[in-house]
């Protein structure tokens, strides 16, 4: 692809025409819809995780706490199922639901940096509110699904989170930018990924794969001392995924920007 050819958001603008792009994708109404969709998606994610952890560990039949691997498996499953459902009903508007994914789209040029910053603010706020509501309803048993690396293994946890985010972001970028793009299967791929790696790494460091998902529960549970692990790991993984996507798929195409910014005429 020639360096003179537009990519990402610019490619989408060229494809639909400047007037249509300005009228639709940059309209305040569409931007507001995207932010509300992001709020619902992230709120639901931390609500189901924090609430699930509290219910599993605080409301057992005999008052006992299930084995850790059972809790990890169930929380991985319910979060995967929520993301599948949320992407299906919100994906045509906006379904990043993860600051690392937003960072990757911004680095690829699929969305502007100002909007990316607003996305991050909404995602972190939604994660915090989802956890607060779960705590109010169910209590704080199970640490509200807060995440923490094994003692003395913070660096290993950073590497694990970077790998998990790298592969997840690379998968999403590949499906958004490649010939195999098929919207109806993206939610299933994301859900399968979350279930597989959440189950594998959950007992090790919580397998957050999402700095907003880690932020809300950890903030409310008072466990921010090792939060940096999940932020650094996610940023490193997203940056590496963008580089790998450029090598594998080339520069961002219009369809990738459309996946990043949603469809203004969806309804």
Automatic annotation (TrEMBL):
Main location per the UniProt record: membrane
InterPro entries linked to this entry: Aquaporin-like, Aquaporin_transptr, MIP, MIP_CS
Keyword Ribosomal protein: no
One Pfam family recorded for the sequence: MIP
Ranges that cross the membrane: 35-56, 68-91, 112-138, 158-176, 188-207, 227-248
Record keyword Ribosomal protein present: no
UniProt keywords, alphabetically: Membrane, Transmembrane, Transmembrane helix, Transport
Cellular localization per UniProt: Membrane
Topological type in the membrane: Multi-pass membrane protein
UniProt similarity note: Belongs to the MIP/aquaporin (TC 1.A.8) family.
Protein name stated in the entry: Aquaporin
Organism: Microbacterium sediminicola
